[in-house]
Design brief:
Its main location: membrane. It is a multi-pass membrane protein. It is found in: Cell membrane. The protein is mainly alpha-helical and 426 residues long. The chain has a single domain, classed as MFS general substrate transporter like domains (Growth Hormone, Chain: A, Up-down Bundle), CATH 1.20.1250.20. 84% of the residues lie in helices and 0% in strands. The protein has 18 helices and no strands.
Length: 426
């Protein structure tokens, strides 16, 4: 508890935490309400809900070569602030496009807003790395995991109530306000120049094609020659697949199999059950991570979560589905806290933006491909049960892959760190 109190005494961390809290809350409400809107308005076309998720994922492929370079070369604080403010403006535009009932235009605005939002996370994570010590990274990851579980617990419930009370426009207006609050909080932070501009000052004019490509390539070279980091990032491709599939699978299994008449209520209950499980798991796993190697936490978190997600395809009643979902919720924090505590430790502060600039497109590529697959083949060719089996199996395979390789590269890294002359080459 003392560790949690101490980290919140860092005012920059507190403001960054609150900014993430409000922005994430708004995004969850906006995305969830938009899915309900599409399923209600176009109930005979589940492909629209999948397409909406694609509009959140595909923009990464349009800006992936820029986001990391911008985060490392430009003022990280300003990048995060402008990203929030522009997204707030585009949320207002989205309300008017929904009024027009032109679905193509709605998807276009969603695409643009998501593209701008992709610049936020690399800048945010790079600043976080600069305002905390290495010993505080795992604590921060544990706090973020607990907050995520609270969102899972109340996010869907709040989204349903806002959607019922204010409709889709009210939900997006709420989303817009949270972007504004997030931007104001980050703008009020007092961050050292070394944190905001670790590679020195640059202007937009400096971001010419040659420089962007050189920096983007240097990020690839850094990852490629750093076997431990490369091994970790290879797993992120599968994580993108899992995130893409799970963004629509719970809604589909409720609406088209388990509870077609009251799927919104059942999803709300599932959000509560899953959120309580993740919250409990966050507390338990935060204590376990102190006694385990971070690599061990990541490996077993993936294997156990994968097993429970696969079992989610078996139930024929909502009760058993909730039980399996709760099992997955309990184990997910083990992997998330492990990754959140480990990545900032092993990545050079000057390279964090470019590393994130490679992770995000890799995840979103697999995220988008998975959603495209679901849009094409569900429900005519692939059943919802098979989707759950495939997602769970993929996580188990990544856990086994990590079990084979991570300990080997982790030991090599520890040996190099004991020899200062060799550490430069890591």
């Amino acid at each position: 508890m003392k560790e949690f109190i101490r980290i919140f005494q860092n005012r920059n961390f507190l403001k960054l935490f609150l900014a993430n809290f409000t922005s994430t809350l708004g995004s969850i409400i906006g995305v969830t309400a938009f899915m309900f809107y599409l399923l209600d308005t176009y109930s005979g076309k589940p492909v629209y809900a999948t397409m909406a998720e694609l509009m959140y994922a595909l923009p990464t492929m349009a800006v992936f070569f820029l986001v990391g370079v911008v985060a490392d070369r430009m003022d990280r604080q300003k990048v995060a602030v402008y990203s929030d403010y522009i997204c707030a403006f585009l949320s207002l535009v989205l309300i008017f496009t929904i009024e027009s009932q032109m679905i193509v235009l709605v998807f276009a605005v969603l695409f643009l807003r998501s593209a701008i939002g992709k610049f936020f996370f690399p800048a945010d994570q790079a600043m976080l790395q600069g305002i905390l010590s290495k010993d505080e990274y795992a604590i921060s990851a544990g706090i973020n995991q607990m907050v995520s579980s609270v969102f899972m617990l109340f996010g869907t419930m709040i989204a349903v109530f806002i959607y019922w009370a204010g409709g889709i426009k009210g939900a997006i207006a709420f989303d817009m306000v949270t972007f504004l609050v997030s931007g104001l909080l980050i703008q009020s932070m007092k961050v050292n120049k070394e944190v905001r501009l670790p590679n020195g000052p640059h202007t937009v004019r400096d971001l010419h094609l040659k420089m962007v490509w050189k920096d983007f390539a240097s990020g690839f070279s850094y990852i490629w020659n750093y076997k431990l980091l490369l091994t970790l990032i290879m797993g992120f491709f599968v994580f993108g697949m899992v995130n893409g599939a799970l963004s629509v699978m719970p809604a589909f299994i409720m609406k088209y199999k388990l509870a077609p008449d009251n799927y919104e209520k059942m999803l709300m209950i599932m959000g509560v059950v899953f959120g309580i499980a993740v919250l409990a798991g966050s507390v338990i796993c935060s204590m376990l991570v102190k006694k385990l190697k971070l690599s061990t936490a990541i490996i077993w978190g993936l294997i156990i979560t994968g097993i429970f997600i696969g079992l989610c395809g078996l139930p024929k009643t909502t009760f058993y589905f909730y039980v399996m979902a709760a099992g997955a919720g309990l184990s997910i924090p083990l992997t998330n806290i492990g990754l959140g505590g480990w990545m900032p430790k092993i990545v050079d502060k000057k390279m964090m933006g470019r590393v994130q600039g490679w992770i995000s497109p890799l995840q979103m590529l697999s995220h988008s491909l998975t959603l495209g697959f679901i849009a094409l083949f569900y429900p005519k060719i692939v059943s919802i049960n098979v989707l759950f089996y495939a997602v769970g199996g993929a996580l188990v395979l990544v856990g086994i892959f990590y079990m084979i390789l991570l300990p080997r590269f982790e030991e090599r890294k520890e040996v190099k760190e004991e020899k200062p002359a060799a550490a430069v080459g890591v």
